[in-house]
Amino acid sequence: LMEVLEHEQDLPSRTPDGHDMPLMVNTGLTVDAVASLKSRIGGVGLYRTEVPFMITERFPGEQEQTRLYRDQLESFAPLPVVMRTLDIGGDKDLPYFPIEEANPFLGWRGIRVTLDHPEVLMVQLRAMLRASQGLDNLQVLLPMVTNVDEVDDAMRLLDRAIVELGEEGVPVNRPKVGVMLEVPATLYQLDALARRVDFFSVGSNDLTQYLLAVDRNNPRVADLYDACHPAVLSAMARLGDDTRRLAMPTSVCGEMAGDPAGALLLMGMGFDALSMNAPSLPRVRAAIRRVPLESARELVDETLRLDSPGDVRRHLAERLGGWD
Ligand code: PEP
Ligand code: MG
């Protein structure tokens, strides 16, 4: 089967009824292996910048970060690379920046940390901007946003970084900026957020965790952590509708996008792109090439009528052979 799928990898991710569903990749460390997929993808939908930070002994300096980011941007140019600002806290600790908290997933995480340490965010933004010189494929993504004030503060720092660099003789263009939709509160603030940024990216991993109040890494409640929960699917479907109404380009970069059944549901819900780990690409592409958009929409309607995660899983198994 994998041989058949491998064969299809140079074919477009297009449904039998002609709908193009752009597939992107999530990256962290290994650029080279993934860069070979360049002709088969729409770009990098999520570059987790905290990953290279996890293997250093201190915060990498501006030069070092510039090199890292340049590598990503050059490897995929002219395709877009969505670089997420540092998303530490929660389950992701830097050895040289320990965070001890009783409830780390509800605590000092993502943009909450970097806005409290603007010097860290400034170095990162300056490095991203410098790395993008002459390439123009950089997009900046803000993780763990809860309030519009956080977006406004981050935008001010970005503006300052652009002005600073200009004064230092390094003219840079203003990149597109996006917000991660992963804190449930953002689902009710889409209009206000849309007025401030250029795109959205749905973090279905955290959105699932926070909607269900289930720690995504706790084995005791692992059974409860389920993207097939009707509430999660209903929230995602509403996000698909709302972001289309706002004409905001919106992709999904959580694990749901890398599961063939999940990807089909997300396509049916109307999302613009799916970003996943590279190994998930063949099966997702194959699923999209076999299921018409119209059928995916019907599948969404059918699924939204079901009451429990088990019912959803059984239905998807019946219709598609299952959800991993
Ligand atoms: C997510 O939350 O779905 C996501 C893509 O980000 P991370 O898994 O890095 O938290
Ligand atoms: Mg997340």
Automatic annotation (TrEMBL):
Compartments where found: Cytoplasm
UniProt record similarity statement: Belongs to the PEP-utilizing enzyme family.
Listed name of the protein: phosphoenolpyruvate--protein phosphotransferase
Lineage of the species this protein comes from: Bacteria, Pseudomonadati, Pseudomonadota, Gammaproteobacteria, Oceanospirillales
Underlying gene: ptsP
Full protein stretch here: 421 to 744 of 753
